[in-house]
Design goal:
Chain lengths: 205, 205
DNA sequence: AAAAAAATCCCTACAAGTAGGGATTTTTAA
DNA sequence: TTAAAAATCCCTACTTGTAGGGATTTTTTT
């Protein structure tokens, strides 16, 4: 029996995962936490086999939490998961000692596979992750300087026109950059860029 | 001389604040941090008079950082600041021991005033904050259950149509809720709701 | 110096959210 | 039980971003 705990500040997502795992008889959800600190407490209390944790959480983020967990309990396997394919986040989770990484839009099958794989002491990184596709997992700087700049401004809440005024370029240029960013990140849809920019507010270089 | 440190994961914002404070001769920025853990280290090292910290930061968030700082250095005054008027965040910062709270879109004058006020051991909470306007600062539940639900779904990246399908209601209804939420939060503009929903991913009740 | 990458700008069409109205039904609270 | 609040739905007009093209100039890199 694989005993797991889930950490995710979004309760509805936890509920979804729990529901999804109900049919997997060898996997048991023994606890859940809504922030990093609660996760640490929970792990100390229950000592699960596998921890599934969001990157971005209140109080303590998933990366720091993973570091602490792996220091105290090296045998516990941690799977990180987040909304987007953030190369840096994946690398940081790996450095922190995580055994796996999946994305929130991954299928149930992927989730289950990830849990079983890490429980067998193997690592599992979602095949959708860009980091897996390209060999060089160190410097994978996909976005150009200008694109990063524009992404940052999007995250700050600026519209294309506002950005064009801030950077003294045309609105059309900003739109082109947006499209290129979307293409590079393999995203579609209306608000994805905004969400991505805000979500990854981390590590803008 | 008021010695302050700034914590904010968005370097450009730190730069902006520093620039703004250059002309204030009695205020000196003696350090900056891009995450909660770095902030704690910095405070221990430099022991400033005032700390200005973002709520949402990698590793350790502003609320937890404030709690730690106030435990170790009760005389240091902390000012929280964030993008939006999150009633819960303000309350939590207050509980953690913060002396003030301002919003990122506050004017420079407000920022300077806040710093000087807390340095005088008085508390400063931005007059724009809803919490200040309404007397009952405990339960200030502005958004209805349905509105919160929709806001959550927006944060998860769903469009109005998708939300309407998820909740078995019409698209028009979702739009109305959006408009009401915007009105209640006093927001305008295209992506504000998305950004707000993602930013406040915290504490959805 | 030549090729590749990045940055700049324009076009049309379409989808989605905002802003301003209005209106009805269902819940909740006094 | 009756007001008040919440939730439901519809209308038109407008703005903004996405998707699909194309094209030119400026920087890098080889």
């Amino acid at each position: 029996m694989i005993r797991i705990v889930i950490a995710e500040d979004h309760q509805s997502l936890i509920d979804g995962i729990k529901l999804s795992l109900q049919n997997e008889l060898d996997i048991q959800v023994i606890g859940e936490a809504n922030d990093g600190e609660a996760l640490i407490d929970l792990v100390r209390l229950k000592e699960p086999n596998v921890v599934i944790t969001d990157i971005r959480m209140p109080k303590l983020d998933g990366i720091s939490a993973t570091r602490i967990i792996k220091t105290e309990f090296p045998t516990i396997d941690v799977i990180g998961f987040s909304m987007f394919d953030q190369t840096d986040a994946v690398a940081q989770m790996r450095d922190a000692g995580a055994s796996g990484y999946i994305m929130k839009n991954s299928s149930l099958a992927t989730l289950v596979e990830a849990i079983r794989t890490v429980a067998k002491k193997k690592s599992f990184f979602d095949s959708n992750l860009m980091i897996e596709k390209n060999t060089s997992l160190t410097e994978e700087i996909i976005l150009s300087k200008r694109e990063l700049e524009i992404l940052r401004l999007i995250g700050e809440g600026n519209s294309s026109v506002e950005i064009s005024e801030l950077l003294f370029i045309g609105k059309a240029t900003v739109d082109t950059h947006r499209k290129n960013i979307l293409k590079k990140l393999n995203m579609h849809g209306k608000n994805d860029l905004v969400r991505y920019a805000v979500e990854r507010k981390y590590d803008f270089t």
